[in-house]
Amino acid sequence: MNTGMGLIWIAGASGLLAFLTSLFYFFRRDPKFLVLSEKLELAGGLGIVITIFLLVYHLLVVDTEYSYVFQHSSTDLAWIYRFSALWAGQEGSFLIWTGFIFIMLAITRFTGTGKILRDTELFALMRSVSLFVASVFLLLLVLKNPFSMYYPTGTGIPEVTNWNLFVEPFVVSYGQGMNPLLRNPWMAIHPPLLFFGYAAFTLPFAAAISGLVLKDSRWSELATGWMRVSWLFLTLGIGFGAFWAYEVLGWGAWYWTWDPVETSSLIPWLTATAYLHAKLRIPQGEYGFMLPLLALVSFILVIFSTFVTRSGLWVSVHSWQDFSTEGMIIALFLLILTGSSTFLLARKYFSEE
Questions:
Q1: Nearest to 113, CA basis, from 274, 228, 283
Q2: CA distance linking residue 181 with residue 80, whole number of Å
Q3: Which residues make Cβ contacts (< 8 Å) with residue 62, sequence separation at least 6?
Q4: How large is the angle between the packed helices 202-214 and 325-352, nearest 10 degrees?
Q5: CA-based nearest residue to 108, from 220, 250, 274, 222
Q6: Residue 317: φ, ψ to 5°
Q7: pLDDT-derived band at 253, boundaries 50, 70, 90
Q8: 184-353 — its CATH code?
Q9: Which residues belong to any copy of the Cytochrome c assembly protein domain (predicted)?
Q10: Which 3 state secondary structure label does DSSP give 87?
Q11: Rounded mean pLDDT, 243-262
């Protein structure tokens, strides 16, 4: 049985049900829904963490019956590159991104301001929004499963299944291995730093949405710590990526060349920087409208960066594929985020007027 594929399905169902039951709790304030939602969240988070370790194992031992392993790992690669193959492809990067979201949500619940505000409507809604974001990533993992498996057919040409847990695996005698451009020590550092920074933007976004809906100014207390984390990891990720590009691509002896995807990771860094500066002026009564705007725009820009990287709409050394079902889902997700944020910001702006 394909255990990894089954765990992805279980995590996906658990995450979606955790989101729905968290909404029931928010609207009905029935503690039984909160207890159920937290258990489902734990199941979803544990499922994702276990699948991460399982995929790492398959990459290290080069189990080529899995299409992701075949495409990104091989026996001639050093162990550090086999491990780094975890984020070399779309499925693996979404997997660790989703895992980071679940881990950060758990940290928020049990530490700092999150622990203090845990029983408030603000935290309940922030948690629901965060679980909605996680559910979208889980849907993408279900549709493009990192544990898709090759199986033999009557024609003698193996095919890939994304849904059948019980097919007889077709073991390829070799792995295709990682793209030669990715076989660099920076591969072990640059992508996970960026993905951690991207994932950390989820909490400020969810807090800002909740604060705007409930008109609760305490949202920034939940958001600012994670915005600092995002800024730090994005700074490190972009910096290390610039060194990597200089070593591998040259770019005319420059560390930066305004590659479209490279630039799309810089813009949320700029908005995060602006947020942290604006936060310092809040006690003086300034930037009351700008602060939630920057929190929302930062995350929307991250999703936009994700969309252009995976849709193939922009020509870039970072682009992975042409427009696909996953690209359409991300585009719809981006539309929902932008529409809801615009509505809530407009309501705040005109109510203040």
A1: 228
A2: 15
A3: 69, 73, 74, 75, 82, 175
A4: 40
A5: 222
A6: -70, -15
A7: very low
A8: 1.20.120
A9: 123-311
A10: helix
A11: 65
The pLDDT of residue 183: 85
Phi, psi of 149 (to 5 degrees): -125, 140
- CA 295/CA 341 separation, integer angstroms: 10
Domain with CATH 1.20.120 in the chain: 184-353
Average the pLDDT over 197-204 and give the result: 97
Q: Is 100 helix (H, G, I), strand (E, B) or coil?
A: helix
Q: What is the spatial distance between Cα 10 and Cα 147, in angstroms, rounded to a whole number?
A: 13
Relative orientation angle of helices 219-248 and 90-110, to the nearest 10 degrees: 150
**What DSSP string runs through 119-180?**
TSHHHHHHHHHHHHHHHHHHHHHHHT-TT-EEE--TTS--EEESS-TTPPP---SS-----G
pTM to 2 decimals?
0.93
Strand partners, 146: none
DSSP state of 66: B
Residue 124 contacts residue 42 (beta carbons within 8 Å): no
CA distances from 87 to 204, 228, 254 (A): 24, 24, 26
Q: Which residues contact 169 (CB under 8 A, 6 or more apart)?
A: 65, 149, 150, 151
Q: Are 292 and 348 in contact (CB under 8 A)?
A: yes
Summarised one tens digit per residue, pLDDT across range 257-283 is 666 767 778 899 999 999 999 999 888
| CA–CA dist 21, 10 (Å, integer) | 16
Question: Which of 187, 199, 210, 49 is CA-nearest to residue 122?
Answer: 210
Q: Which two tokens stand for residue 124?
A: 């309940």
**Where does the pLDDT of residue 250 fall: very low under 50, low under 70, confident under 90, or very high at 90 and above?**
low
> Distance between CA atoms of 122 and 208, rounded to whole angstroms?
10
